[in-house]
Amino acid sequence: MKIIFRGDSGFCRWQLLRWCEQHNVHYLVGLAQNPRLLAAAQPLITQAEHTCQTTQAKQRHFGEVQYAAATWDHERRVLVKAEHTAKGSNPRFRVTNLTGEAQPLYDEVYCARGEMENRIKEQQLGLFTDRTSYHGWWANKFRLLLSSFAYLQLERLRALGLVGTELARAQAGTIRLKLLKIGAVVLRNTRRIQLLLSRSYPYQRLFGQVDHALGSG
65 with 159, same domain? Predict the structure, then answer.
Protein backbone atom coordinates (compact mmCIF):
# COMPACT_ATOMS: atom_id res chain seq x y z
CA MET A 1 0.00 0.00 0.00
CA LYS A 2 1.29 3.44 -0.99
CA ILE A 3 0.85 6.12 1.68
CA ILE A 4 1.30 9.77 0.72
CA PHE A 5 1.55 12.47 3.36
CA ARG A 6 0.49 15.92 2.16
CA GLY A 7 0.72 19.07 4.24
CA ASP A 8 1.34 22.79 4.09
CA SER A 9 4.61 24.45 5.06
CA GLY A 10 3.74 24.27 8.75
CA PHE A 11 4.49 20.53 8.59
CA CYS A 12 7.84 20.92 6.83
CA ARG A 13 10.19 19.71 9.57
CA TRP A 14 13.17 17.59 8.64
CA GLN A 15 12.50 15.15 11.49
CA LEU A 16 9.06 14.47 10.03
CA LEU A 17 10.48 14.09 6.52
CA ARG A 18 13.15 11.71 7.79
CA TRP A 19 10.54 9.64 9.64
CA CYS A 20 8.58 9.30 6.38
CA GLU A 21 11.72 8.21 4.54
CA GLN A 22 12.57 5.64 7.21
CA HIS A 23 9.06 4.16 7.22
CA ASN A 24 8.45 4.01 3.46
CA VAL A 25 5.93 6.87 3.53
CA HIS A 26 5.86 9.23 0.57
CA TYR A 27 5.47 12.94 1.22
CA LEU A 28 4.64 16.12 -0.67
CA VAL A 29 4.85 19.10 1.67
CA GLY A 30 4.80 22.85 1.23
CA LEU A 31 8.06 24.72 1.73
CA ALA A 32 8.18 28.41 2.63
CA GLN A 33 10.21 30.50 0.21
CA ASN A 34 13.49 32.07 1.26
CA PRO A 35 16.36 33.87 -0.52
CA ARG A 36 18.28 30.62 -1.24
CA LEU A 37 15.27 28.92 -2.78
CA LEU A 38 14.39 31.99 -4.82
CA ALA A 39 17.96 32.21 -6.10
CA ALA A 40 17.98 28.54 -7.10
CA ALA A 41 14.67 28.93 -8.95
CA GLN A 42 15.49 32.31 -10.48
CA PRO A 43 16.01 31.07 -14.08
CA LEU A 44 12.53 29.51 -14.06
CA ILE A 45 11.00 32.58 -12.40
CA THR A 46 12.60 34.88 -14.97
CA GLN A 47 11.40 32.68 -17.83
CA ALA A 48 7.81 32.81 -16.55
CA GLU A 49 8.02 36.60 -16.18
CA HIS A 50 9.32 37.14 -19.72
CA THR A 51 6.71 34.81 -21.25
CA CYS A 52 3.94 36.58 -19.34
CA GLN A 53 5.11 39.99 -20.57
CA THR A 54 5.25 38.70 -24.14
CA THR A 55 1.89 36.92 -24.19
CA GLN A 56 0.03 39.11 -21.66
CA ALA A 57 -1.31 35.87 -20.19
CA LYS A 58 -0.79 34.09 -16.90
CA GLN A 59 2.19 31.72 -16.95
CA ARG A 60 2.94 28.65 -14.84
CA HIS A 61 6.33 27.03 -15.35
CA PHE A 62 7.44 23.97 -13.41
CA GLY A 63 10.84 22.59 -12.50
CA GLU A 64 12.82 21.27 -9.55
CA VAL A 65 15.93 21.97 -7.49
CA GLN A 66 17.92 20.13 -4.84
CA TYR A 67 17.78 21.94 -1.54
CA ALA A 68 18.65 21.53 2.13
CA ALA A 69 17.97 24.07 4.85
CA ALA A 70 20.77 24.64 7.34
CA THR A 71 19.00 22.43 9.90
CA TRP A 72 18.23 19.54 7.51
CA ASP A 73 20.16 16.28 7.56
CA HIS A 74 20.55 16.11 3.75
CA GLU A 75 19.36 17.64 0.48
CA ARG A 76 15.89 16.82 -0.81
CA ARG A 77 13.99 17.25 -4.04
CA VAL A 78 12.02 20.49 -4.19
CA LEU A 79 9.39 21.13 -6.87
CA VAL A 80 9.13 24.69 -8.18
CA LYS A 81 6.04 26.36 -9.59
CA ALA A 82 7.08 29.67 -11.13
CA GLU A 83 3.82 31.54 -11.65
CA HIS A 84 3.62 35.04 -13.09
CA THR A 85 0.48 37.10 -13.66
CA ALA A 86 -0.37 40.74 -14.21
CA LYS A 87 -0.04 41.17 -10.45
CA GLY A 88 3.53 39.89 -10.45
CA SER A 89 5.52 36.80 -9.52
CA ASN A 90 4.09 34.10 -7.25
CA PRO A 91 6.60 31.23 -6.91
CA ARG A 92 5.69 28.18 -4.81
CA PHE A 93 7.85 25.33 -3.49
CA ARG A 94 7.03 21.74 -2.47
CA VAL A 95 9.49 19.20 -1.03
CA THR A 96 8.89 15.56 -1.95
CA ASN A 97 10.35 12.08 -2.20
CA LEU A 98 7.89 11.08 -4.92
CA THR A 99 9.07 10.35 -8.45
CA GLY A 100 7.48 11.87 -11.53
CA GLU A 101 7.27 15.20 -13.31
CA ALA A 102 6.83 18.37 -11.30
CA GLN A 103 3.57 19.66 -12.78
CA PRO A 104 1.46 16.47 -12.38
CA LEU A 105 2.77 16.04 -8.83
CA TYR A 106 1.83 19.63 -8.00
CA ASP A 107 -1.54 19.80 -9.77
CA GLU A 108 -2.84 16.27 -9.36
CA VAL A 109 -1.32 15.13 -6.06
CA TYR A 110 -0.64 18.17 -3.91
CA CYS A 111 -3.59 20.33 -4.95
CA ALA A 112 -5.97 17.43 -4.31
CA ARG A 113 -5.51 18.12 -0.60
CA GLY A 114 -7.73 21.16 -1.11
CA GLU A 115 -10.68 18.87 -1.74
CA MET A 116 -9.93 17.00 1.48
CA GLU A 117 -9.97 20.31 3.33
CA ASN A 118 -13.37 21.05 1.80
CA ARG A 119 -14.73 17.79 3.23
CA ILE A 120 -13.29 18.60 6.67
CA LYS A 121 -14.86 22.06 6.51
CA GLU A 122 -18.15 20.48 5.41
CA GLN A 123 -18.20 18.32 8.54
CA GLN A 124 -17.23 21.25 10.76
CA LEU A 125 -19.90 23.60 9.46
CA GLY A 126 -22.68 21.13 8.71
CA LEU A 127 -22.30 18.65 11.55
CA PHE A 128 -20.76 20.77 14.32
CA THR A 129 -17.40 19.04 14.66
CA ASP A 130 -15.99 22.17 16.27
CA ARG A 131 -18.31 21.95 19.28
CA THR A 132 -15.67 20.55 21.60
CA SER A 133 -15.96 23.11 24.38
CA TYR A 134 -16.35 20.71 27.31
CA HIS A 135 -13.40 20.73 29.75
CA GLY A 136 -13.11 16.92 29.67
CA TRP A 137 -11.06 15.29 26.89
CA TRP A 138 -13.18 12.11 26.62
CA ALA A 139 -16.42 14.06 26.24
CA ASN A 140 -14.94 16.10 23.39
CA LYS A 141 -13.59 12.97 21.74
CA PHE A 142 -17.02 11.34 21.96
CA ARG A 143 -18.63 14.38 20.37
CA LEU A 144 -16.09 14.23 17.54
CA LEU A 145 -16.79 10.52 17.01
CA LEU A 146 -20.54 11.18 16.83
CA SER A 147 -20.01 13.96 14.32
CA SER A 148 -17.73 11.74 12.21
CA PHE A 149 -20.26 8.91 12.28
CA ALA A 150 -23.00 11.32 11.19
CA TYR A 151 -20.82 12.54 8.31
CA LEU A 152 -20.20 8.99 7.11
CA GLN A 153 -23.94 8.33 7.21
CA LEU A 154 -24.69 11.42 5.13
CA GLU A 155 -21.86 10.63 2.72
CA ARG A 156 -23.37 7.19 2.09
CA LEU A 157 -26.81 8.76 1.74
CA ARG A 158 -25.38 11.12 -0.88
CA ALA A 159 -23.57 8.34 -2.75
CA LEU A 160 -26.35 5.74 -2.67
CA GLY A 161 -29.65 7.53 -2.22
CA LEU A 162 -29.13 10.90 -3.88
CA VAL A 163 -27.21 9.86 -7.00
CA GLY A 164 -28.81 11.42 -10.07
CA THR A 165 -30.94 13.84 -8.02
CA GLU A 166 -30.77 17.58 -7.48
CA LEU A 167 -28.95 16.99 -4.17
CA ALA A 168 -26.37 14.56 -5.57
CA ARG A 169 -23.58 17.08 -4.91
CA ALA A 170 -25.17 18.88 -1.97
CA GLN A 171 -23.14 19.44 1.18
CA ALA A 172 -23.94 17.72 4.45
CA GLY A 173 -25.63 20.79 5.93
CA THR A 174 -27.98 21.11 2.93
CA ILE A 175 -28.95 17.43 3.08
CA ARG A 176 -29.55 17.68 6.80
CA LEU A 177 -31.81 20.71 6.44
CA LYS A 178 -33.78 19.57 3.40
CA LEU A 179 -34.21 15.83 4.01
CA LEU A 180 -33.73 15.21 7.72
CA LYS A 181 -34.54 18.33 9.70
CA ILE A 182 -38.26 18.34 8.81
CA GLY A 183 -41.47 18.15 10.79
CA ALA A 184 -43.33 14.83 10.73
CA VAL A 185 -45.74 12.70 12.72
CA VAL A 186 -44.39 9.26 13.65
CA LEU A 187 -46.89 6.40 13.95
CA ARG A 188 -45.61 3.09 15.24
CA ASN A 189 -47.22 -0.27 15.85
CA THR A 190 -46.02 -3.86 16.04
CA ARG A 191 -45.73 -4.18 12.25
CA ARG A 192 -44.42 -0.92 10.92
CA ILE A 193 -43.37 2.66 11.47
CA GLN A 194 -45.07 5.40 9.46
CA LEU A 195 -43.82 8.91 8.84
CA LEU A 196 -46.56 11.39 8.00
CA LEU A 197 -45.01 14.40 6.30
CA SER A 198 -46.67 17.74 5.75
CA ARG A 199 -48.49 18.18 2.45
CA SER A 200 -46.57 21.41 1.98
CA TYR A 201 -43.16 19.71 2.36
CA PRO A 202 -41.43 20.74 -0.90
CA TYR A 203 -39.17 17.66 -1.19
CA GLN A 204 -41.77 14.90 -0.85
CA ARG A 205 -40.92 13.36 -4.20
CA LEU A 206 -37.18 13.43 -3.54
CA PHE A 207 -37.70 11.96 -0.07
CA GLY A 208 -39.64 9.09 -1.65
CA GLN A 209 -36.90 8.54 -4.26
CA VAL A 210 -34.25 8.31 -1.55
CA ASP A 211 -36.41 5.96 0.49
CA HIS A 212 -36.87 3.69 -2.51
CA ALA A 213 -33.19 3.83 -3.51
CA LEU A 214 -32.18 2.72 -0.03
CA GLY A 215 -34.58 -0.21 -0.19
CA SER A 216 -36.81 0.84 2.69
CA GLY A 217 -39.90 1.64 0.66
Answer: no
